From TrEMBL:
Keyword Membrane: no
GO biological process, one term: purine ribonucleoside salvage
NCBIfam families given in the database record: apt, PRK02304.1-3, PRK02304.1-5
GO cellular component: cytoplasm
Name of this chain's protein: Adenine phosphoribosyltransferase
Self-association and partners: Homodimer.
Keyword line: Cytoplasm, Glycosyltransferase, Purine salvage, Transferase
EC nos: 2.4.2.7
Reaction(s) catalysed by this chain's protein: AMP + diphosphate = 5-phospho-alpha-D-ribose 1-diphosphate + adenine
Length: 170
């Protein structure tokens, strides 16, 4: 299936000069959603997964679907102030300034096998911060899995110590 045909470009979103990759056409098409989920699962293979971690907010689209198919738990990583229980945070650099992500301290047990999923790998800052949180909790990252990879932004360079897969590359 040509998944790129279900991803539209939105110019100057969320700010001027950015070409946003909008996956909502893929999400609203039942067949494309099913086929892309199956293709993402194929990228994972037969490895044992205990938890699938999805990053706020578009990582929440596929991560729970993958977790369900893998008989694994789903763990959300969120922006500050969104998780109710005891949590830890990780700062990361943005183009101008910094941001932070949080995870519940009891979300991952030491030694659990973790799949990291997000919709798009761009510069890699969010994914790297997420991996750092998982490792601080003692999780073992078995793969970083993305629907779309923007290769020209070199985000994979921040994740070069992990097995990285993506369904669609630009």
């Amino acid at each position: 299936m040509d998944f790129k045909s279900y991803i539209r470009d939105i110019e100057n979103f969320p700010k001027a000069g950015v070409m946003f990759k909008d996956i909502t056409p893929l999400l609203k098409d039942a067949n494309a959603l099913q086929k892309s989920t199956e293709a993402l699962l194929d990228l994972i293979g037969d490895v044992k997964v205990d938890k699938v971690v999805g990053m706020e907010s578009r990582g929440f689209f596929f991560a729970p679907l993958l977790a369900s198919h893998l008989n694994a738990g789903f763990v959300p990583v969120r922006k500050p102030g969104k998780l109710p229980a005891k949590k830890m945070s990780q700062n990361y650099d943005l183009e101008y300034g910094t941001d932070s992500l949080e995870i519940h301290e009891d979300a991952i047990k030491k030694g659990e096998k973790v799949l990291v999923h997000d919709d798009v790998l761009a510069t890699g800052g969010t994914a790297k911060a997420t991996c750092e949180l998982i490792e601080r909790l003692g999780g073992e990252i078995i793969q970083c899995n993305f629907l779309v990879e923007l290769q020209f932004l070199n985000g994979s360079g921040k994740l070069n110590k992990y097995h990285l897969t993506s369904l669609v590359q630009y």
